Protein: 4-hydroxy-3-methylbut-2-enyl diphosphate reductase
Amino acid sequence: MEILVGDYAGFCFGVDRAMEIAFEAGESKTDEVYTLGPLIHNPQAVGKLNKVGVGLAEDINDVEEGTIIIRSHGVAPEVIEKAEKKGLEVINATCPFVKKAQEKAKKLKEDGYQVLISGDKNHPEVAGILGFTNEQAIVIEDESDFSKVPNTDKIGVITQTTQSISHLQNLVNYLLPKVKDLKVHNTICTTTSQRQEEAAQLAEKVDLMIVLGGYNSANTNRLAEICCENGVNTHHVETAEELQTDWFTNIKKVGITAGASTPNWIIKEAVKRMEEINEEKNQVETTEGEEKT
Ligand code: F3S
Structure:
């Protein structure tokens, strides 16, 4: 069995940077250190952070002193103001690409555009960007939200960085004939589109796709969707332990992709486990062959 691992599988630049910042804070600070929400959507990596003393706070109201780390998804400006007013030290690990989307949304709002965010309503990055428009932007998840677009001449669009290009394309196609002054900022992170394109290409070449990453990671779930759309049998797992031997029966080529928040050690463990499964398969085939002769 051939195992093909995508070049873009796993940690992106922004998550890698946020993890490094958090590990450094955990190791160097003597007071309490918390991330505001899980730093990344991967329970195993969050567990490792815990070991170096970085705790998890779901809300700024839960922290009375110490340091708070803003994760790569970013937050609304009021959250940082609130933390600073409470006397907390704020370490902002917002990904620079997310920062760009926040700034563009703010500028569009200031220039009088009705801002539309092409993204997931419940995603923290989108909640953060909304804060940069004084909560005035409208989130468009899919076509069912098109009816929310007001009848106005000035519309500005930005995208959640992990959004797929087809969602943005659909929205722009809808707006083009209606809006005179349409400004579109494609703020999709190239890492995401590269990873998605690579996953689709891999899915075409293999008999089975394994998608590694947190079940609560939107971009990992999207990767699994993309692989399924390509018609290949796909399993989404968080860790190597979840891989089941029978998935690999009659499989000649298996592809691996992983979400932006999946650490490298999880990918390595999955490859190792698949190699073991392959070895077990080969042994069974050899024994069966010997019994026949
Ligand atoms: Fe940043 Fe792109 Fe990752 S926006 S957090 S580098 S997916």
Observations:
- The longest strand covers residues 154-159.
- Residues 264-292 form the longest helix (29 residues).
- The mean pLDDT is 93.
- The chain has three domains: 2-9+191-292, 13-95, 97-188.
